Amino acid sequence: MTHEALIAGVAGKEPKVDRQAYTAPRSVVVGEVTLHPGASVWYGAVLRAEAEPIVVGANSNVQDNCTLHTDPGFPVSIGEGVSIGHNAVVHGATVEDGCLVGMGATVLNGAVIGAGSLVAAQALVPQGMRVPPGSLVAGVPAKVRRELTAEEREGLALNAAHYVELAGTHREAHER
To answer: PANTHER family this protein is in (predicted)?
Structure first.
């Protein structure tokens, strides 16, 4: 089994991966992707930035089998302390600090998920939707359901912190 991620340039655009970021085996980071300190990209995740940049902020995680991709005019920006749940797709969108995008959710071009928000599992956030900070968004198409409680927002932060710890554990296992 390989213990390396595929990290490669394309069309003259090169990834910038901080030494404190973690890329799991079989993850793919291609093109103009920036991974800040403490960011993690997990098994099977694909970050493809040929058209526009992808930026993953400090201490954010892109979990197993996620896809982050761009279109012309639609970069991807993931803030700090963000969790992108397993099998989620973020396509040409912005996810601000402290958010969680649930498992299997899709966030489309030009959408902005406000800081400290939760996108429920399997939700479809349509193109151009603006989610206010601290919101719970759910459904197909997604709608703002309510404000998150302080306790729920703290849970989002704890989830991101947990993935920073997990990345260290996995990095150590792969260095053996």
So the answer is: DYNACTIN SUBUNIT P25, GAMMA CARBONIC ANHYDRASE-LIKE 1, MITOCHONDRIAL-RELATED
Question: Which amino acid is it at 95?
Answer: V
pTM for the model? 0.95
pLDDT band at 176 (very low <50, low <70, confident <90, very high): low
Architecture of the domain defined by 6-175: 3 Solenoid (2.160)
CA-to-CA distance for 100 and 40, rounded, in angstroms?
14
Chain-centre distance for alpha carbon 127: 17
In angstroms, rounded to a whole number, what is the distance separating the alpha carbons of residues 138 and 127?
15
**Residues 101-151 pLDDT 10s:** 999 999 999 999 999 999 999 999 999 999 999 999 999 999 999 999 999
Residue spans of the domains in the chain: they are 6-175
